[in-house]
Amino acid sequence: MMESEISENNVARKILAKSIVLPDDLKNEKARTSFDCGVCGKSFSQNCKLTKHKSIHTGERPYCCDICGKSFSQKGNLIIHKRIHTGEKPYPCHICGEAFSLKGNLITHQRIHTGEKPYVCDICDKPFSQKHKLVTHQRIHTGEKPYHCDTCGESFSQSIHLTKHIRIHTGEKPYHCDICSKSFSQSSSLTKHKATHTEEKPYHCDICTESFSQSAQLTKHIRVHTG
Which residue windows are coiled coil (predicted)? Predict the structure, then answer.
């Protein structure tokens, strides 16, 4: 092909490109660099991401689990949920082989092997492998107790402490001895109780080597030596 013909073809292509007229809505979308939520103002790089986000405000949950009926606003959340029913754990640890249903749980688990503790307290510099452990720890410094008992008003820094406390009011004893059927409100109390059946005595006196099934018994015994 002659050089003059190539030049003419290039010119023709440029003229054709300029003559193509895009619909107004498509031109506007191409020109936009962000898509903003009219409710909360949050911005997104793609319109499809904005559409997904809007379901938070509308409450729309079009993706339903065909096993338990629970519904979700996004398809990805439904896929993750179904692993509860199927037992699927697609994220295995390449070190120990333990598998997880969520990638985030695998990342957290791997810190057991690596020793990584990326969350550091800005007050005492103590590091943690998980963010929620750092948040809980910082309440030691701040004195924050966000978990309140509706019955007596007492407050706690951790939800597990509130759960244990509530059993004082309800009388719930979910930990049962499989030998004598006696029940306890805390797992630690059940562990101590079981020692009475097994005759296990893990608490040893360093002075006379006598052993006890409970730490309180050892503490009381030591007073015999110390006066």
Answer: none
